[in-house]
Amino acid sequence: MINTDLLGPGDRDAWERLFRAYIDFYGRSEPDALYERAWNAFQEGTRLHARVARLDGRVVGFTHFFVHPSTSGPDVCYLQDLFTDPETRGQGVARALIAAVTEWAREQDCDRVYWNTQASNTTARHLYDKVARDTGFIKYQIDLPK
């Protein structure tokens, strides 16, 4: 059975292993400071939040999310990152994490939960099409070099 809960102090190694795999999945490379900053923010739990999924007591997935205001209604919850251990895919881990974030957002009186994914991420989109609706929006981005 899959259980989800908030990322706890004892989850650091498992979470970081999965988060690094997530960053690799998207072809990025990030400095160690990024992981430290994220970990500290999740432990504070004020602006950024994280949940993990456990299967037989082992961390097999995570999600990162936060609430932000909306100009056209109540606050909304953005599910920024979602990743499951490749060995456990197809067992309901991602579905359980999405459901947990959705319930958390409901408790925060958010109007909706939303996320982005790459059009080529067909495996994930197969699930997303079952648990949410595609709003048809296309994402544009301006990178701000340092």
General description of the model:
The chain is α+β, with helices and mostly antiparallel strands and 146 residues long. The chain has a single domain (2-131), classed as Aminopeptidase (3-Layer(aba) Sandwich). The protein has helices at residues 12-25, 32-44, 93-107, 122-131, and strands spanning 2-6, 49-55, 58-70, 73-84, 113-114. The longest helix is centred in the last third of the chain and has 15 residues, at 93-107. The relative contact order is 0.15. The model has no long low-confidence stretch (mean pLDDT 96).
Q: Total number of helical segments?
A: 4
Arrangement of strands in the largest sheet: 1-2-3-4-5
Largest beta sheet, briefly?
5 strands, mixed
Helix content: 25-40%
Compressed to H and E, one letter per element, the order equals EHHEEEHEH
Give the mean pLDDT: 96
Poorly predicted runs of 5 or more residues: none
Structural class: alpha+beta
Q: What structural keywords apply?
A:
single chain, alpha+beta, Aminopeptidase, five-stranded mixed β-sheet, globular
Task: Compile the SSE list and pairings.
Blueprint: E1 2-6, H1 12-25, H2 32-44, E2 49-55, E3 58-70, E4 73-84, H3 93-107, E5 113-114, H4 122-131
Parallel strand pairs: 4-5
Antiparallel strand pairs: 1-2, 2-3, 3-4
Quick structural gist:
With 146 residues, the protein is of the alpha+beta class. The chain has four helices and five strands, in the order βααβββαβα. The protein has a single domain (2-131), classed as 3-Layer(aba) Sandwich (Aminopeptidase).
